[in-house]
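S1.2 Input.
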Amino acid sequence: MTTAIHRRDFLAWSSASALVVPARAARPGRMGPRVLHVLGAGDGSTPQGAPVTGPDGALYGCFMHGGSGSLGQVYRLALDGDYSELVAMRYSDTNGFGPSGEPAFDGQGALWACTMFGGRQRLGTLLRHTAADGPQSWEPGAGRSQGPGQFQGRLAVLGDHLYGIAGLRRDRADNAIYRTPIEQPWRARVIASPRAEGLGAVISGPLSVPGGALVGTTSEPLERGGALYRMDVRSGALQVLHTWSSGGPRGELVLADDGWVWGVLSADRARHQGQVWRCHPRRGALQVVHAFTGGEDGAYPSGGLARHPDGSLWGLTNGGGDLAMPRGTLYRIAPDGSYAVVHRFSEDDPCGYSPEGAPGIAADGSVVGCTGAGGALGRGTLFALDYVA
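S1.3 Output.
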């Protein structure tokens, strides 16, 4: 059991503008993850975001590196552990390479993903995959000096449009939010550029919230600050909900059932080893729910959070945990805001250690994640925790 974190420590860690939610003692349960798939030669590495559940109940995800083509892959993972490569990415392939966000499914059941590099114009691609047609790709930025390219982050499917993040051809240091019709993905157009308004580079993919708006985060170089913004879908107008002066938002955002948006913050070594926070997109007040100490409660969130049907939120850290061998944690935040470490990884863990990316929630309620090292072949694993609320 971890030691409860005193409120005065939270007040020292949190920013002056943030309301702090008191932490409670972490209570690890009698649960342990199991190996779903051992990552080996020909499999991917460096997961992008979280695995997502497809229409068939299997999990789908993207690795930026590795795979049979060495430059990334889209994979399918059944709940019985059956693992298959849907799309292998190669330098010479017109589908692009280097997928840089978790996949999304449209209303017809097609999988969508994006790549940062490759394609005929080497600008990155939007990728669509179905069992009937296999992979198809488009390069919306080709031939347009003001067009998007180097597609990145999680895609949002809203009605008959896709929303995402892309670089801008006119300024490779800039990126922006774009929208494109699902039926005409080559017609993507930029609708907002937070960096142009002094908010930094966009980090998280657009997240739809009640009222028809999108929210997202930006980060300054080296994660030295950032912002949480709300965007009007029709006009592209941006409203700043919160700014950070140190540490930077990391991973994707998640919307809880009560309308609060949750996310994580990278470490500010002088004050904390990462934070879990929440913010209401209409009220604007940000609350720090947990500040990692670097001890048994974990350190350095590896990605965003996953929402479980029971209302709890789950996340991973790639540091802290076991005091003798701190190699990361799997943690749970209950609907009442209490924080608990569910599993601490170590170098002799069959599931591997040093978690990467964010966890996903499978159709059966299990929590699925990825480690970047260890396991039977030393390359990490895809693991599942059979969680019962």
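S1.4 Remarks. The chain has one domain: 7-34+83-350.
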